[in-house]
Amino acid sequence: MLFSQKILKWYHENKRELPWRSTKDPYRIWLSEVILQQTRVAQGLPYYQNFLESFPTVYHLACASEQKVLKLWQGLGYYSRARNLHATAKMVVEHYDGKFPNTYEELKKLKGIGDYTASAIASICFGIPEPVVDGNVYRVLARFFGVELPINTTKGIKYFKKLAREVMDSENSADYNQGIMEFGAVQCAPKNPKCQECPLNAGCKALKDNKVQLLPLKQGKTKIKNRHFNYLVYLDSKKNTILEQRQGRGIWQNLYQFPLLESEKEMDLSEVKDKAKNADYLPSWDTADLYNGQPIVHKLSHQHLYTKFWILRTEEILVGATPWNKIHAFPVPVLIADFIQRFKI
Where is the HhH-GPD domain (predicted)? Predict the structure, then answer.
């Protein structure tokens, strides 16, 4: 039995019942694929359902405000995915009359849709034999064929795409692509893969050479950057606070936060006062208390944020402030959402 036939047989016997597997609607397939990038199914499923409830069609998503889209996305991370999702919906409505393009090449022209997502939509919705290559597929192919090319190099990416095309079932690309991704997520998992009961174990090169835990290979490791965040949580006598929207192309673009003082090292109260004085847009305060004695360490893919929340109370009414009981409506980073949930005025 061929590699692809074994994948298909395993998939038909073991696939999880998931809502996007009962449709070929490009909108729903696209939505599920974007949400599930860098997200586990268990975490992504409620978001998928909430998005469909709020935006049942691409038209609803295109007409929504960015703030509402970001709020629904809150907690998933990688917020550029949400902004691209919104931008793509507008493109589909404005340039394609609300219908997703039905070719791999045209799909790739949409914002935020790369090789993987275009391949998934093309094969699942339109039956185009375009192989998907995501983290799960890299792992299955690298282990079974014993490929030791790093998956994050140009040479490696090209090689795995070519290999994926050679071994796929072109006559049943939709099920095959979903099958190999499912196989990598469930059977050939990153940790504790089920090798002894694997239908591919007889021909698996990594299992034979005792390299299952070593593959796939990645070249180098990105250096982790440490940053120190000091959030200024203002509270006036009317229980108002200050929120500002993050600008620029850094992390959490367009999300909301409390006024932020970033520093190269951990700061104490006197240092916070000095730094705040130099930022003339910040109001003064009467009392200051540190909410968390030790910095909260929030880990992102390439940076660790050492965060303190300073509770600053003032008798003056803050200008342009937001009532504390209204801040739940704003899309904020999960770090701030957790603080808001815990903090009691």
Answer: 35-186
Instruction: Tell me if 112 sits within 8 A of 79, measured CB to CB.
Output: no
Question: Choosing from 33, 130, 197, 316, which is the catalytic residue?
Answer: 33
Question: Is 17 annotated as catalytic?
Answer: no
**Is residue 331 within 8 Å of 67, Cβ to Cβ?**
yes
Asked whether residue 250 carries a pLDDT value surpassing 90, the answer given is no
Residue 114 lies in a domain: yes
Spatial contact of 4 and 168, defined as CB atoms under 8 Å apart: yes
Whether 68 maps to a domain, the answer reads: yes
The verdict on residue 108 lying in a domain is: yes
Assess whether pLDDT exceeds 90 at residue 220. no
Query: What DSSP assignment string belongs to 31-90?
Result: HHHHHHTTS-HHHHHHHHHHHHHH-SSHHHHHHS-HHHHHHHHTTS--THHHHHHHHHHH
Out of 173, 191, 214, pick the residue that ends a domain.
Answer: 214
